[in-house]
Amino acid sequence: MKKVLIIEDEEYIANAEKLILQDEFKVFVAHNGNEGLSMAKRLRPDVIVLDIMLPQMSGYELCQKIRDEKTIANTKVVMVTAKSEQADEDMGKYTGANEYITKPFEPEDLISAVHKVLKKG
After folding, report:
1. Low-confidence ranges of the chain (pLDDT < 50)
2. How many CA atoms lie less than 13 Å away from 112 in the CB half-sphere?
3. Which of 19, 81, 112, 118 is most exposed, with minimal Cβ within 10 Å?
4. Residue 56 half-sphere exposure, CB side, CA atoms within 13 Å?
């Protein structure tokens, strides 16, 4: 079963994302950037669902650190955020996000984004 790491500081959003994905994936949750980076290194998930506005370090910074870390550099990243400006999405892609979806989203949007990045291999 593929592993998904959700990095989201809002407990209710993290729980909702976990509920959406747990039927198809083994899901883990981290609540801040540092915890997320350390869990990513330890678990080596197939996909990271990453919020941008996190305590300790932003999702942009964290995405860049993931891309710089040899052991997890190829991990697929789906950014999920309330930041809906084109500049925010551009920054997400620039730092290494494979997909970018905005909150609020439908459950199918999240599942679809995760499947999409996994198909890209």
Report:
1. none
2. 7
3. 19
4. 14
For the chain, the structural domain boundaries read 3-119
Query: 31 with 12: CB under 8 angstroms?
Result: no
- Cβ atoms of 70 and 52 within 8 Å: the answer is no
Please report where in the chains the tokens 């650190």 appear, as a residue: 65
Question: What is d(CA 105, CA 80) in angstroms, rounded to the nearest whole number?
Answer: 9
Multiple choice CATH, 3-119, 3.60.10.10, 3.30.1490.20, 3.30.70.1110, 3.40.50.2300: 3.40.50.2300
